[in-house]
Design brief:
The complex is a heterodimer. By secondary structure, chain A is mainly alpha-helical. Helix content of chain A is about 60%, strand content about 0%. The two termini of chain B are about 30 Å apart. The chains are: A mainly alpha, B alpha/beta. Chains A and B meet through helix 4 of A and helix 9 and strand 16 of B.
Chain lengths: ~210, ~750
């Protein structure tokens, strides 16, 4: 088990609401939910969620730590912001969902094979390297993340689109070898590292 | 009668002159209507027109005036002649505005106008100018029953308006429930924290007020009289009685808490750590800002569960079926008692529907900010386990059974009104006593509050769930006993803020009542009316129907069982007049004759004219205004209908119906207000009485071999502007279908 997770369990005991409040992005809003269910009704993915936002908020209050952090639900969020717009209590629900996902990921409790989580990781590594997205590399990495055979299959399925993009100069295969990033990627990486340090310190997550 | 002189004035303004043959109307008024003076005027409601009428009254000795112009609801200020008997023929809203301006409609439109002039002339011959109430009392003191927030507010408001007030309080102290609170729900921005109940200040204001006299440890032993002249015996605990005279009464007897011992399944009575909201106020008062201790062992409470809607909003036996309105805010406030003393205390409010009236939504938010947990759940039971309470509940969001542990459980129980004895039950009990005299010593389960010596019973009638009958939207403080007004939780469940507003409203009503009573005028809804009912004793058969059916308990009985009218209690609805089988009850300006003669005055075309006649008796409170508004909107209806406004459908006497059928009307429509528990009848029971009576008319119709459709009754609201003409037209088509009245021409 993740050491951070153990530490958190130790620190908050049964008070999961407090843990969320203090560690999750916008987590202090969770207690303000009044259980009207408008968020769940507004979510375009609502029927596909294991636990819609209203339920997640209730689970947090009921102290269902393991179930909340391990669920795939908040990873389903597409950031359409419908829930934020409609919430009568003005909860930043989208941000809370991402905050919860991020927290679960850091504690090592997020579902390992969740595609959203994996894509997010690939995307972050890609952009953090040079400061600009290398689209060619990102697509290939994404297609081949489940192994070579499935990668070939996915690539072939998208071949028409890819060729079209090549033709209209929307895709440059040479960026795979020479990608133009920001001027000083080293400095960018240093900045990101520092930012993470500050955030961790603020949240008491430094380990 | 010899000095009666009738004048008719026919207006030609508003298009009446172009659409109608007013000369013919004037002729009719003179020949058939026997008017000594008839005048036509181009614009009757202008200064000249009104001046003409005034001059005839002053110099020509006119005592009875017929104005044939617009609806009686229009131009009331111009045509305000209170020294003569006056009637209005409605030629504008009743005729030209509801008929198309076409050549083929001209004849039937003129017939309508002719008939309305005939009706007005017939009515005026039987009308008298009301002489005013002879038994008017002019006592303007106001009695307030109950010394809680409602009562004290009513007393202070009345006093500030310059009226002397008596406050009668059953207990040894003023303040009521509010005095028992640790804090109250906030009334000021930002609605975030409980605030001081403010009762001490209120009591001080009462004690400092020279206009207010307080009777503690006292109850009302007997109330008699009428608005402006109530006589009230105030009894103290020691048995002494003082008699006081007052003009109006405000009943602010408040509520008592639902008996939580009826909820053993929620642990009440099983463990001292299960309390109701009043119990928690007591604990909080003891703690006074320090951490609250649980009753069983004095341990500091670290976790508390509030169970909302305990024993209320439920149809289970012994539960209250209604919502008491204040308990959600109260629980939020009480949860803050814990959180404010120690933010570490677990506070869970278990609700099904959280309802926070007033500015409670901000208060609710504030509690969430303070960390109070709100759980949507249905409690299933409270048990004690290892010195801790366990609340079993079904989590309605997660759809699963769960357990919440707590040191203390608070049950949010409801308010039960202190509305005194249920007089309907008493009447039923005394009826059964009459039949079987075994339980002669039947005890009254609830003590009476007012001990009225009225024929109808000692207290105000109840409506639903034991709350005093008082229309909650249209005329909130009015009760069915004139001059007696209710406010606060005896009327409907409410919190302190609402009770204070309520009390102010009731105080204003009481002031209106004493002022009206002192000049012999009626109170709401015929406020200002000087007429009152009288009866011909020779004809009375002592049948008691008037005394039983009077919605306001205005009529008592004397030793010989003759009715005794308490004019000041009367609202002038005429329900007694409608009830009287021998037709001996009448008002000076409204009687069996004034309406009956109008019914007969209509010119009845014979069977072969293909011109049916429909009589529409319309309640003047809602149906008649709706008809007027339909006319204003230019809606058209059948020219065969003749509309006759009545004070209330309850005043409709069956003789009018049989007279109408005998004189050849083909159909009779009655339009009154909604009846039942959510009634809209301005006289509460009038329309219900009418329905009752009309139900019995069906038999008579069948005996006469007449179709039961010849008499129909409709519930009409003031907003039914489009529906009313539709009802008339549909009925005209129906009459066409079933054919003419066979009694025509006999």
């Amino acid at each position: 088990m993740n050491t951070l997770n153990t530490a958190m369990v130790e620190k908050y005991r049964n008070d999961f609401l407090k843990e969320v409040e203090e560690n999750v992005e916008e987590g202090h809003w969770v207690k303000m939910c009044m259980q009207c269910g408008v968020c769940s009704g507004s979510c375009p993915f609502g029927p596909d969620w294991e636990h819609p936002p209203q339920e997640i908020f209730m689970m947090i209050r009921a102290g269902k730590r393991d179930e909340v952090l391990a669920t795939e639900s908040m990873w389903m969020c597409t950031s359409c912001y419908n829930c934020i717009v409609r919430c009568p209590r003005e909860l930043p629900i989208t941000h809370i969902m991402h905050g919860l996902a991020n927290y679960a990921h850091r504690l090592g409790l997020a579902p390992k094979m969740n595609p959203t989580r994996r894509f997010a990781k690939i995307f972050w590594n890609n952009i953090a390297k040079t400061g600009r997205v290398n689209e060619m590399a990102l697509s290939l990495k994404l297609y081949f993340m489940d192994g070579f055979a499935s990668g070939v299959k996915k690539s072939l399925a998208m071949a028409g689109v890819g060729l079209g993009m090549l033709k209209t100069k929307r895709l440059n295969p040479f960026t795979l070898f020479r990608h133009k990033g920001v001027e000083k990627p080293k400095q960018l990486q240093a900045m990101l590292k520092k930012a993470k340090e500050i955030e961790d310190r603020r949240k008491g997550l430094a380990s | 009668m010899s000095d009666t002189k009738t004048a008719a004035y026919i207006c030609k303004g508003c298009g009446l002159g172009e659409r109608l043959d007013t000369a013919q109307l004037a002729n009719l008024a003179e020949s058939e209507g026997k008017c000594a003076i008839t005048r036509q005027h181009d614009f009757l409601c202008n200064q000249d027109g009104v001046g003409t009428i005034r001059n005839d009254i002053d110099n020509e000795g006119v005592t009875h005036v017929v104005i044939a112009a617009c609806s009686r609801r229009a131009k009331t200020e111009a045509f305000n002649f209170d020294d003569v008997a006056l009637t209005r023929a409605n030629l504008r809203e009743g005729v030209v505005w509801v008929r198309p301006d076409s050549e083929e409609a001209r004849e039937t439109t003129q017939e309508m106008a002719d008939d309305y002039v005939r009706m007005a002339c017939a009515e005026i011959q039987y009308m008298h100018q009301p002489a005013g109430n002879q038994e008017a009392g002019s006592n303007k003191r106001i009695l307030v029953v109950g010394g809680g927030v409602s009562g004290m507010t009513a007393a202070l408001e009345s006093s500030k308006a310059g009226y002397e007030v008596l406050v009668v309080e059953k207990t040894a102290e003023l303040g009521g429930w509010a005095a028992k609170l640790h804090r109250r729900v906030p009334t000021r921005e930002p609605f975030a924290d409980p605030q001081d109940a403010g009762v001490v200040e209120l009591i001080k204001a009462i004690n400092d007020d020279q206009n207010v006299q307080v009777f503690l440890n006292s109850t009302i032993v007997r109330t008699s009289g009428a608005p402006g002249r109530f006589s009230v015996d105030i009894g103290t605990e020691s048995g002494t009685t003082t008699t006081e005279n007052v003009g109006a009464i405000i009943q602010a007897s408040g509520f008592r808490n639902y008996d939580a011992s009826q909820l053993p399944e929620l642990g009440f009575g099983q463990s001292p750590d299960v309390v109701d909201q009043a119990g928690l106020e007591e604990l909080a008062k003891q703690a006074n800002g320090k951490p609250i201790q649980r009753p069983s062992d004095g341990k500091e409470v670290n976790s508390v569960v509030f169970i909302q809607c305990a024993g209320q909003r439920s149809n289970a036996e012994g539960h209250l079926p209604y919502c008491s309105g204040h308990c959600c805010n109260t629980s939020i406030k009480q949860a803050m008692y814990f959180k404010d003393a120690n933010p570490g205390v677990d506070t869970v409010v278990m609700f099904d529907d959280l309802r926070t009236p007033g500015n409670g939504e901000d208060f609710y938010r504030s509690a969430q900010r303070k960390g109070v947990i709100f759980t949507k759940g249905k409690p299933q039971g409270v048990n004690k386990n290892n010195g801790q309470l366990e609340v079993k509940f079904h989590d309605m969001i997660l759809d699963e059974d769960a357990i919440a542990k707590a040191d203390l459980v608070v049950l949010a129980t409801g308010q039960v009104p202190n509305s005194g004895a249920d007089i309907e039950q008493l009447a039923a009990a005394s009826d059964s006593e009459d039949t079987q005299n075994e339980n002669a010593e039947l005890t009254v389960p609830v003590d009476s509050i007012l001990n009225l010596n009225y024929r109808q019973g000692p207290d105000l009638p109840h409506l639903r769930h034991g709350f005093s009958d008082s229309h909650f939207i249209c005329f909130p403080y009015e009760t069915r006993r004139s001059g007696i007004y209710t406010c606060g939780p005896v009327r409907r469940p409410m919190d302190i803020a609402q009770a204070a507003v309520d009390a102010t409203g009731a105080a204003l009503k009481a002031i209106q009542a004493v002022e009206n009573a002192s000049v012999g005028r009626a109170a709401h809804p015929r406020s200002g009316d000087l007429s009152f009912p009288s009866f011909r004793k020779e004809g009375c058969t002592q049948c008691k129907r008037c005394t039983v059916e009077c919605p306001f308990g205005a009529i008592d009985e004397d030793e010989e069982r003759y009715p005794v009218f308490n004019e000041s209690r009367c609202r002038r609805c005429g329900t007694c007049m409608g009830a009287c089988p021998v037709r001996v009850i009448s008002f000076e300006n409204y009687s069996v004759d004034t309406v009956g003669q109008q019914v007969k005055a209509v010119d009845m075309p014979d069977e072969f004219d293909e011109k049916p006649r429909i009589l529409l008796l319309a309640c003047e409170n809602d149906a008649y205004p709706a008809l007027d508004m339909a006319a204003q909107q230019g809606l058209v209806y059948s020219p065969f209908v003749r509309i006759l406004p009545v004070r209330c459908l309850g005043s409709v006497n069956a003789i009018w119906i049989s007279d109408a059928l005998n004189s050849g009307y083909d159909g009779i429509m009655l339009m009154g207000c909604k009846k039942g528990d959510d009634y809209q009848c301005h006289f509460v029971k009038g329309s219900e009485m009418a329905y009752d009576r009309m139900g019995k008319i069906d038999d008579t119709l069948q005996q006469l071999q007449l179709e039961t459709e010849r008499v129909v009754t409709h519930e009409v609201e003031i907003t039914d502007i489009h529906r009313v003409p539709q009802l008339i037209n549909e009925y005209a088509a129906k009459i066409d279908e079933i054919g003419m009245n066979p009694f025509k021409g006999f």
